[in-house]
Amino acid sequence: MLFLFFKSESDMIEKIGKYNFWNDNIPELGYVRAECTNKIYASTGNNLVKVLVGQRRAGKSFVLRQLAKQLLDSGVPAQNILYINTEYLEFCGLKTVDDLQSLYQEYREKLQPQGKIYLFLDEIQQIKDWERFVNSHSQDFVEPKEIFISGSNSDLLSGELATLLSGRYVEFEILPFSFHEYADMQHLEVNRENYIHFLQIGMLPELFHLQTEEVKINYVSAIKDTVMLRDIVHRYKVKDSLLLDDLFRYIVNNAGRLFSISNIVNYFKSLGRKTNYETLSSYISYLCKAFLIHRAERYNIAGKEIISGNCKYYSNDLAYYNYLYRGFSYGFGSLLENAVYLELRRQGWQVYVGVQAHSEVDFVAIRGDQKLYVQVCWQMAGDENTAQREYAPLLNIKDQYRKVIVSLDEIRFPNNNGVEHLFPWELTLK
To answer: What is the CATH number of domain 9-173?
Structure first.
């Protein structure tokens, strides 16, 4: 017997059927995130393991099911697709790799798939030694398989599996909704007014289905607490969870500002809090690994190298500020800068803070052999000094890579010696 709480093994396949596409069943798919699914689908047709990572509730499970539906629509038989999600009660008996292997064998016996099998393993990190299962089956040339896995911690592919799968996996970061996804789902025009509204809410998928401010606040707070507890406190044995929470609050309210860990240590000590560099450095690392925040390191434009020391941090979703920490000193310009940062990451860019001799560029984005310089400003119209200040760092860069200013002005500025002006919804750069 595989799971003691089932009457028989056959019950297991029956119970998980509602999450799979067998017998003409279509599980809940939600809003189809074509921006994500098309990119991942383009990487199929090989034995590379597809790894989806991102914060809890950012939509990874829906993306996995949407990918499975794409495969089904392309002609893959339903019985050749197995979807497992350890977050659901029906799968809670999957504790070890042996449990996982037993379930897979039962699936093979009951559904008898012919040809390549597609395995979708959602929140796989809950299963002890799951790496052995993924490594073994991804390399099985006798019974070919294509494996998709997801997890809510960037350590998903650390350690043994990273070594075992070196060069044999491709990773995709799933971020909350883009503005274009939001506008499409809500049937809104892509314009300045709706973009400003977008900045004032957040991008977590479920937010758009909640009606009242109170419910939204409770929802965002619950997500934050869940990530903190399950993906940080329990995982890393954090001793001071209150300090962790206060640290997250501090970073959210200082998003886009250049500071060092020493600055944060001094801030908390000024409040009479006992802490040190090592503790806060570790806690920041945990917040990054759980995808609550992102670190943007400084990049020497002239020297083409990463500079250690001070850096900037950005929130994974504007909802944390908008619903939990509103009222702090945090202007619309900072919200816009955070949103632009996330959009660049969403498009697969590595994003840094640009540093040159006498100025700073908000973002240097690198993707393969491409490079993009981005300056972000709320508005430039009506203030010549502001316009000059924003254009100057880009004009000082002498290479031929693309340079853009992103703002929410009501008018478009002309090209200035190669520097383009874009509205934030135009930042879908290929």
So the answer is: 3.40.50.300
